[in-house]
């Protein structure tokens, strides 16, 4: 079972976000670090959950980004066989 500490289960939304220096927003620090590690350290957990989301605040509106995050990262997904590998690796309890 996944218990995401960055997600507010009562309000069905994220409690906080991570924003990098390029103005890309991430749903939590684990997705931010995953991107950084993959680019710079070549440490790899195969997870492409948010790769197809335009998460740049330079080219996309915050509300659009958050809607896309909600589609792929939510309680139903976390408790299914579609649970992202990164969530399983870092937040499974």
Features:
9% strand; 4 helices; 93 residues; 37% helix; mainly alpha
Provide an overview of this structure.
The model has no long low-confidence stretch (mean pLDDT 89). This protein has one domain. With 93 residues, the protein is mainly alpha-helical. It has helices spanning 29-40, 62-72, 75-78, 85-91, and strands at residues 7-8, 13-14, 18-19, 25-26. It has a two-stranded antiparallel sheet with strand order 1-2.
The figure for the number of domains is 1
- β-strand number: 4
Poorly predicted residue ranges:
none
* Biggest beta sheet attributes: 2 strands, antiparallel
Question: Percent of residues in helical segments?
Answer: 25-40%
Q: Strand pairing plus helix content: what structural class? A: mainly alpha
Question: Terminal Cα separation, in Å?
Answer: 6 Å
If strands are numbered along the chain, what order do they take across the biggest sheet?
1-2
Percent of residues in β-strands: 5-15%
Order of helices and strands: EEEEHHHH
Number of helical stretches of at least 4 residues: 4
* Principal-axis shape: globular
Question: Over all CA atoms, what is the radius of gyration?
Answer: 13 Å
Q: What do the pLDDT scores average to?
A: 89
